[in-house]
Amino acid sequence: MKKTSKILLSEKEMPRQWYNIMADMPNKPMPPLHPATREPIGPEALAAVFPMELIKQEVSTERYIDIPDEVIDLYKMYRPAPLFRAINMEKAIGTKSRIYYKYEGGNYSGSHKANTAIAQAYYNKQEGIKRITTETGAGQWGSALSWACHHFGIELLVFMVKVSYHQKPGRKLLMNSYNARVVPSPSTMTESGRRILEKDPDSPGSLGIAISEAMEIAVQDPYTKYSLGSVLNHVILHQTIIGQEALLQMEKADDYPDVVIGCFGGGSNFSGIAFPFLREKLANGKNIRLVAVEPASCPKLTKGKFMYDFGDSAGMTPLLPMYTLGHNFIPEKIHAGGLRYHGAGVLVSQLLKDGFIEAKAKMQRECFEGGVLFARTEGILPAPESTYAIAGALDEARKADIEGVSKTILFNLSGHGHFDISAYEKYFEGNLPDHEMTATEVDAAIANSEI
Ligand SMILES: *Cc1c(COP(=O)(O)O)cnc(C)c1O
User: Fold this and answer.
1) Which of 152, 314, 371, 377 could serve as 387's disulfide partner, Cβ 3.0–4.6 Å?
2) 415 neighbors 263 (Cβ within 8 angstroms)
C-alpha cells in the first residue's frame, strides 16, 4: 500500500471517455411515457427542451462515449481531481479500515456539478442555442452552469428554490458574478409559479416547482433550451469521469474498495463515482458494494415507491419509472439543499430495484457531526450534502471494526461548504433539528401526487 495520502493522475492519464452503464444493465429501464397520452415516447419528444446530442446520450446504449476535445480542455482546469486517503480521520476514529475519498470541490463551482455543466453548455453551443433556463436548489448547480454558459456565450436564467435563495445569498451572488440572472422560485414570471403562489404565497419552493418554471420558459422559444443538473441519464454519464479516474487512482494506490459511497440527491455524484466500479461487478464479477446515502427527511430510495412519476411539480416532464415520494412533495428545509428532490434517476432506480446497489437514510445532525470531524482531521469543510457520504463511510468503518475486519472504503466528497457556514453555525448552536419522514407521511405525499 502506498504511504502518501494523495493519489494524483497526470493530465495525460485523464480518461477520454465517459462510461454508460445502460450497456451493462441486465434489465434496461422501462421507457419514458408522454405526460398526456401515457404512451411510450421516443427521443424526438425531448427536442423542444434539449439539444439533439444530449438526447442521443440520454437513450444511448454505447458502453463508452468520447469526451469532446473542447470539454477535455476545460476539464483540465481542475481535473484529474485528487483522490486522498483520509489517514488523519482514520487515526481519529481508531479504525483498522482504509478510507479514501475523491474530492470534487476543487473547481470554480465548488462541486462535481461542473463536470456536466461544461459538457451541457458545450453541446448547446454546438447547436446554436442562445439562452438556457434551469433550476437550482442549494445553488451549486446554478453556479456550475453560470460559468459554463458565460464561457460559451450563452445567456442563463436560473430559478432558485426560494428557501435557498434566502438561506444562501452568497450562492446567488456567485451566479451573478458569473453573469447569470437568478429569480427566486416560485415566481410570478411563469404560469406554474403563479399557480403555486395563489395557493400558498409563502411557499418555500422546491426543485420540482423550479423545474416546471424553467421548462415553461424554455418551450416558448426555439433558441432557448432547458438544462438539468442531476437525475437524467446524460447528466449521470458526464459524472462518470469521477469513477473512471478513481478506478485508475485506486490501482495506483495498490488497493481496491470493498464499498463505494455517495450522498444522494437525484443520483448524479453517487452514480458518477459508483457506476464505473459497478461495471467491474457486472462485467467482471468483482465483489463490491455501492451505497447511496440520502436524508431521512427526503427518503425516496429507502421509503419511496417505485412507480411512474413526473420529474417536476406541474407535470410537464415525461413520466419516468423511478423511486419517488410524489412530484408534489415538499421536503423539510434541511440544510443539504441539494438532497431535497422528490425522486431518483431512472438508472439508479432500476439498479436499486434489481439489488445491485444499496441505500440508507440518515439524520442531518449525525451527518454534520461527521462533517466537522472530517473538517478538523482532513482540512476541508464539506458541503452539507457531502456530509451524508462522510457519515456513510464512518458507519462502514465502525461496522468493520466491530466485526474485527479491515475494509477499504471509498466515498465521493461532492463539494466544499464555504457557502454553507450558516448551516454550520446552526449546528454549533445546537439548532439543527432532526427530522425523519414516517411511513404515514410518505403514503400521504404519494397520495397527494396522483399522476
Ligand atoms: C447537487 C449536489 C448533490 C446532490 O446531487 P446528486 O445529483 O445526487 O449528486 C450532492 N452534493 C453536492 C455538493 C451537490 O452540489
Assistant:
1) 371
2) no
